[in-house]
Design goal:
Blueprint lengths: L1 E3 L3 H12 L8 E3 L5 H8 L3 E5 L7 H11 L5 E6 L5 H9 L3 E4 L4 H13 L6 H11 L4 H10 L3 H11 L4 H8 L3 H15 L4 H11 L6
Parallel strand pairs: 1-2, 1-3, 3-4, 4-5
């Protein structure tokens, strides 16, 4: 786990919460997005907790740079003060895997990190839907991308359930199929949409109008 925030108290608080868990290790800290790429190359974290607003390079640009530069980038968890923030939505569109509020309780922080690391369900789906309703929609590129993907009927069904925040196991129960079958469908959806994870696929689903965010 790598912590990136220009506020030392925030980094210290996150470190204290996360290092109390036996399965989470904080391997480094940075005070600005400009330091992320060299530090990620050095310490190789599985997850980066990234502040949205930083003085030199903000979390949006740092996310774009990280995903553009590295062939096997870590998961990115955006850390923010405000939930309904256009910066958060832009960070998700840039490739972040989810977001976390700085006022979150310790248990919520740990849950968010584990969920992002596992990548089998969407973090705060209702909040993502709200952000998409306010800042997304009407995106021609997303519509064209979805049309090119030519999802099957079952893949489209899986994408809609992903957008509702269901995990692979929950989708399997809903569709009365095996979990491995769902994993195959999810992988196919991501590949066809050119999405690196569920969050990016769901953002495309909302922006294209395939799934209504309301």
């Amino acid at each position: 786990m790598l912590l990136v925030d220009d506020e030392p108290l925030v980094r210290a608080g996150l470190r204290a919460v996360l290092e109390a868990q036996p399965d989470i290790e904080v391997v480094g800290e940075a005070a600005d997005g400009a330091a992320v790429i060299p530090l990620v190359r050095q310490v190789r974290p599985d997850v980066v907790a990234m502040d949205v607003r930083m003085p030199l390079l903000d979390g949006i640009e740092a996310t774009r740079a990280l995903l553009r530069t590295m062939t096997d980038p870590p998961k990115i968890l955006v850390v923010t003060t405000f939930e309904n923030d256009e910066y958060v939505y832009e960070a998700l569109r840039a490739g972040a895997d989810g977001f976390l509020l700085k006022r979150a309780r310790p248990a919520e922080i740990v849950h968010a990190v584990r969920l992002i690391a596992e990548g089998e369900s969407l973090l705060f789906p209702a909040s993502v839907r709200q952000l998409a309703a306010e800042y997304g929609g009407g995106n021609r590129a997303a519509r064209a991308e979805l049309e090119r993907a030519q999802l099957t009927e079952r893949e489209g069904e899986v994408l809609r359930l992903m957008a509702r925040g269901l995990s692979n196991a929950e989708i399997a129960a809903r569709l009365v199929v095996g979990t491995e079958t769902v994993k195959s469908h999810v992988s196919a959806v991501l590949a066809k949409l050119g999405a690196r994870d569920r969050t990016q696929a769901v953002i495309t689903a909302y922006e294209s109008g395939f799934v209504a965010p309301g």
